[in-house]
UniProtKB/TrEMBL annotation:
Domain of life of the native organism: Bacteria
Pfam families: MTES_1575 (PF18741)
Domain Restriction endonuclease type II-like: 142-232
Stated name of the protein: Restriction endonuclease type II-like domain-containing protein
Lineage summary: Bacteria, Bacteria division WOR-3
UniProt-listed InterPro entries: Restrct_endonuc-II-like, Restrct_endonuc-II-like_dom
Organism annotation: candidate division WOR-3 bacterium JGI_Cruoil_03_44_89
Amino acid sequence: MEEIVLVCIVPRLGDWDILVKEHWYHIPLMSAPEITTLAKYLAFYQPGVFGDEKWAVNYYARVLGYTIKKRIELYPDQIAHKNRDKDYYQIFVDDLIKLKNPVPSLRWRRIVFIPTTLERLCNAKEINDLYKSSPIEDVLYGEMKRKGILPERQFYVKEVGNTYCLDFGVFCKRRKIDVECDGKEFHSGEDAHEKDRKRNNELTSYGWSILRFSGREINETPKGCVEKIKKTMRKLGGEK
């Protein structure tokens, strides 16, 4: 049975001190991933404030348990914080374990939570190897990697108050490509097609080219899908 790991960001050095000395990490209840209470381990992404260990997952820890508390109970000195009365998970962890091979982010990107498995965490070469999403995304990602393409998985784009989560972001010299995997569950029917069309138009207006592949295309001809991606990349000046 796969052991679930939740990769979390540690945005501040003060949060790291709490993690190391007091052995707990907090997650807002309203924004916590569904698998939060199922995770056997937490792993920790360290951003730019962490010097030599920045922009990578270097450590993980076994989950010992959790409770739910108001933020003001966790941080009694932050009485003016806007979320002081909101509910948070306080997740208790064992001692930090250093990964034999750090998992770096090859490109600056927004990282919040990444549900993964212990096997993926221990074998990942870079941050995108951690993502455990749909089977068709895994198939296409594997084929892109084999062909030397380095996409960003579950890439968030924020534009004029809107946030979009792309299945894959591919960055070229003249333009960016949004590669979408359209499984039947979420992309069938007139309403879904209308939603996808509007999303395509919005992202195109923000400077993205969009490629969409059905689950059938990906499962039956993954190499053909990747050839279309590579052809588009060449027209856009190649990978950046």
